[in-house]
Design goal:
By secondary structure, the protein is of the alpha+beta class. α5 crosses α7 and α8 crosses α9. The strands form four sheets. Strands 6, 9, 10 and 11 form a four-stranded antiparallel β-sheet that branches. It has a three-stranded antiparallel β-sheet with strand order 3-2-5. The chain contains ten helices and eleven strands.
């Protein structure tokens, strides 16, 4: 075999033993794959090649060059970028020193300074009184009575589920002034809502008081977080459900229906009262006006009669006979004008009846 070290080397006395590996540099005849690498020779050749291409000043100073490269790389790691939806918070040995706007900036590299970039334009949401879960694409809502049940000003219990939308206003305050800003916001929102609901009646909270409650909650919650210097901006407080507790909702609905019936009957009675009273007042005013007119008429007539009597008396004093005759004729005229008349004269042709044309009856027939 050509790979065996045979003892009888026929025909070639100059051939070295060891098979095809017999010409190895160390002359040992062993497989070079089993040899250990010579690291000293490797580094020596690398240094020679480096010195060949570097200026004379750096030849033999490879450590300095490596240190310079490392330092430059370390310094260049201090560049950082803040996106448009973020805000940069620079920490020097863990202490907040400054805040940077969006753009490219520089800070002392790690471990001297580090930078945090929280998102300040994203709206965050906190659910209070319930939790929403997505299970297989369908959303389920789980009520939490210990958060949602509150006592109103008239000592009733109401179940309120609401949502707080917030975002980061000052990134430094948000990161370092509170241990858990989101949990603090949740607790503060629940406390503010309980305070507001405790000042109003349940009927106001269930009907037309939702908008007012939402506005007050947003204002008071923002004021409280500003006192904490939480660095949070409250975007909106939204009431999702304002209902009586589930255990008493049927009884509550019965009470509501009874109150509606009471209000309806009360309104009907008030409407009837509002219709009767003005009509009675109008009739009373009409009667009073007629009485006043009648009284004025009677008084005027009496005054006129008295004045006429005075004038007749004065005429009587001037000429008594003529006045008497005139009074007599006027009296007969008044009497005879209202009776049916038949005139009989004994000297008229023996029959005693005078022909009479009933002009008055003809006038009545017309």
């Amino acid at each position: 075999m050509p790979w065996n070290n045979q003892g009888n080397n026929q025909g070639n006395d100059n051939q070295k033993p060891g098979g095809p590996w017999g010409n190895s540099p160390n002359g040992s005849g062993r497989d070079p794959r089993n040899q250990k690498p010579d690291f000293d020779d490797f580094f020596r050749k690398g240094r020679d090649n480096f010195n060949r291409y570097m200026p004379s000043f750096f030849r033999g100073n490879a450590i300095i060059v490596l240190l310079v490269i490392v330092v430059l790389g370390w310094l260049s790691s201090g560049f950082y970028r803040v996106n448009t939806q973020q805000e940069g918070v620079v920490l020097r040995f863990g202490e907040w020193v400054k805040t940077t706007p969006p753009g490219l900036h520089y800070h002392w590299p790690y471990p001297i300074e580090t930078v945090l970039t929280p998102e300040v334009t994203r709206d965050n949401r906190i659910n209070i009184g319930f939790r929403s879960t997505n299970d297989g694409g369908s959303s389920t809502r789980r009520d939490l009575p210990f958060e949602s049940e509150m006592i109103t000003g008239d000592e009733n219990i109401v179940d309120i589920d609401f949502v707080v939308f917030w975002r980061i206003g000052e990134a430094g305050n948000y990161l370092f002034n509170l241990t858990d800003p989101e949990e603090t916001t949740k607790v503060a929102a629940e406390a503010v809502m309980r305070e507001i609901v405790g000042r109003v009646d349940i009927q106001f909270a269930l009907t037309d008081g939702r908008e007012q409650i939402q506005a007050q909650a947003k204002q008071q919650l923002q004021k409280l977080l500003d006192e904490y210097e939480a660095g949070i901006i409250i975007r909106e407080v939204q009431l999702l459900a304002v209902d009586p507790p589930v255990d008493v909702i049927d009884a509550f609905n019965e009470v509501q229906r009874a109150r509606q019936d009471r209000d309806r009957l009360k309104n009907e009675a008030e409407a009837y009262s509002n219709g009767i009273i003005p009509r009675a007042r109008g009739e009373a005013a009409q009667i009073i006006a007629e009485a006043e007119a009648y009284a004025e008429q009677i008084v005027n007539k009496a005054e006129g009669d008295a004045s006429r009597f005075t004038q007749v008396y004065e005429a009587y004093l001037v000429n008594k006979d003529i006045t008497k005759e005139r009074i007599y004729l006027e009296t007969l005229e008044d009497i005879m004008s209202n009776v049916d008349k038949i005139i009989i004269d004994d000297g008229a042709g023996g029959s005693g009846v005078i022909p009479y044309l009933p002009l008055s009856e003809i006038g009545k027939a017309k």
